[in-house]
Amino acid sequence: MTTTATSLLQFNNVSLGYGDFTVLKDISIDVKQGQVVALMGGSGSGKTTLLRAATGQIFAQKGTVSVFNQDLASLTAKQLQFMRQRMGVLFQQGALFTDLNVFENVAFPLREHAKKSETEITEIVLSKLEAVGLRAAAHLRISEISGGMARRVALARAIVLEPELLLYDEPFAGLDPISLGITAQLIRDLTDRLNCASIIITHDVPESFKIADQVYIVGQGKLITGGTPEQLTDSTDPYVRQFLHGQPDGPIAFNYPETPAFEQWLEQRKP
Ligand SMILES: Nc1ncnc2c1ncn2[C@@H]1O[C@H](COP(=O)(O)OP(=O)(O)O)[C@@H](O)[C@H]1O
Ligand SMILES: [Mg+2]
């Protein structure tokens, strides 16, 4: 990977949060074309919040978030909508439409956003299903496929508009080790084949280290570290070591941190 590759997503000294609650401060992340980037961190550390900022669902409290070299805060609603069509997103509950078959689930974004003939739709959808190994499952109902297959259908749907940037929120959650390995390798292959960039939120250290070019760890309200899997493996930072090795004792707290929203809620419960 050369350092001259185009930046597709940049966080520059960004603070993110909800209302007057700040979840993450001073985040700088750069995602380049062709890269798979893993975002890791304990639950509640702000990983999903980062994805929301990347898609313009929330805006930075400080700093700038740029996608395709455009500051998201400077875009009109229409420009933002247009930009989102260049991104593929797989949310944590990447729900498929259970009343539609596999084919129609993948065809959905095409029917919504692209003016294509039925012949073109059939060709495109079958080629995306082929890319995830499910061409021959096109006719099946969602209730007839396994959890691992459903994840791959969601993946095919996320790439059907050929996005330049792919964002995945916990794509491995709930998968058995074999489906997990297949899904991880698929994300790597699709990124290379589409020459896009993929950002995956995951807890799976071994699997993401196998496919990622860069890994970022968030925690304690900030970016703890970022680097290649090799650099992180060699890190002597106690937080990084605890995170990577899943040790119960160390700087990562077991307790969910108290927030202003919690304090307010607790105050209201007092007689
Ligand atoms: N819509 C929201 N409004 C207020 N607080 C939120 C909202 N979504 C998430 N949070 C809070 O922001 C923090 C980070 O959440 P999130 O980004 O979902 O964490 P993660 O994905 O790392 O588990 C948590 O404290 C969570 O309770
Ligand atoms: Mg989350």
Describe this structure in words.
The protein is α/β, with parallel strands linked by helices. It has helices at 47-54, 77-84, 102-113, 118-131, 147-159, 177-194, 205-211, 229-233, 238-245, 260-269; strands at 7-18, 21-32, 36-41, 62-67, 70-71, 87-90, 165-169, 197-201, 214-219, 222-227. It folds into two domains: 7-86 and 163-269, Rossmann fold, CATH 3.40.50.300; 96-162, no CATH class. The protein has ten helices and ten strands. Strands 6-7-8-3-9-10 form a six-stranded mixed β-sheet, sandwiched between helices. β7, α6 (177-194) and β8 form a beta-alpha-beta unit. The mean pLDDT is 91.
Tags for this model:
binds adenosine-5'-diphosphate, 24% strand, alpha/beta, 38% helix, 10 helices, Rossmann fold, 271 residues
Strand content: 15-25%
Query: What is the CATH architecture assignment of the largest domain?
Result: 3-Layer(aba) Sandwich
Give me the side-by-side strand order of the main sheet. 6-7-8-3-9-10
Q: What is the first-to-last residue Cα distance?
A: 60 Å
Molecular shape? globular
Name the CATH homologous superfamily of the largest domain.
P-loop containing nucleotide triphosphate hydrolases
Average residue-wise pLDDT: 91
Q: What is the helix/strand order?
A: EEEHEEHEHHHEHEHEEHHH
CATH fold description of the largest domain: Rossmann fold
Low-confidence stretches: none
Q: What number of domains? A: 2
